[in-house]
Amino acid sequence: MGLSKHTERFVHMDATGKTDVSAAGIEREIRDFCARSPENSLGPDSVEKAWEEPLVGIARGDDPYFARFKRDIGPFYWTPEEAFALAFAGREVPSEELSVVSYVLPQTPATRREQRQEADYPSRRWSLSREYGEAFNQRLRRHLVEVLAAAGVDAVAPAASPLFDYRRSERLGLASNWSERHTAFVAGLGTFGLSDGLITRRGKAMRCGSVVLHRSLPETPRPYRSHQEWCLYFARGTCGACIGRCPTRAISFEGHDKARCHAYIRETAAPFAREHFGVEATPCGLCQVAIPCEACNPTAVGDDREQG
Length: 308
What we know:
Layout: H1 23-36, E1 55-60, H2 64-73, H3 80-87, E2 99-106, H4 109-116, H5 124-150, E3 155-156, E4 166-169, E5 173-176, H6 180-186, E6 190-192, E7 198-200, E8 206-213, H7 232-236, H8 241-245, E9 251-252, E10 255-256, H9 258-277
Antiparallel strand pairs: 1-2, 2-8, 3-8, 4-5, 6-7, 9-10
Helix pairs in contact: 4-5
């Protein structure tokens, strides 16, 4: 498979002069693409970046958590092995031969600062990041697949697949057949909070993406033992700041009401963003700022909390 005219090759080579598709080489490619691509912006006429420097982690394709997600969410949920087989005409590759590269794209201080001032509707920058920043996220997914293929490594970005979809989980309500947040958790990049958002080392104000590839890479150790360890409420019984940030009361100490949240985004936040900012995205994200986990892991001792 060749590169598209919009794709640059990996700029990093290994000691033999070949394309570096090691874990370090792939991470450098993600970082370089975010730093250098003009598409990482808040719009076609903007020079302001949508995302800060990314975090990158790697999970094994046979990590037991993927099978656990399928059991918990429903039979429609893809394991890495299934996502790969769907992309390559049913070609079965053992899960132990697959790796999943996951990355986190943190919101910028300017976007977070502007979003903090809002209480009922998403801010302009946040709405633009949901539209143009997510378009860049899709571009990054495709870029990784293309450059890996050009280096002889088959890969697929499940969330960019035409088969990616949302279904009704018997246990959990509305759910997608591939979750970028759950994948990032497996790859050691963060744990879940009271609002269901993923708390990373750079906080909850972020988006994420992933690619499944036919290459066995060393996994990123998970620096936590439970899926809610970095949330102050679950770790210490304190906080709950995200509850007060939700304009539709979809968050409580009992958890996240996905149906109420979804209705607010579709019926209130998205029409507001369309009318005021001219975007077709579905933004909200009010519960991701003005909280202790906005830009850091709040349970870490001696962290460098940047509130911007």
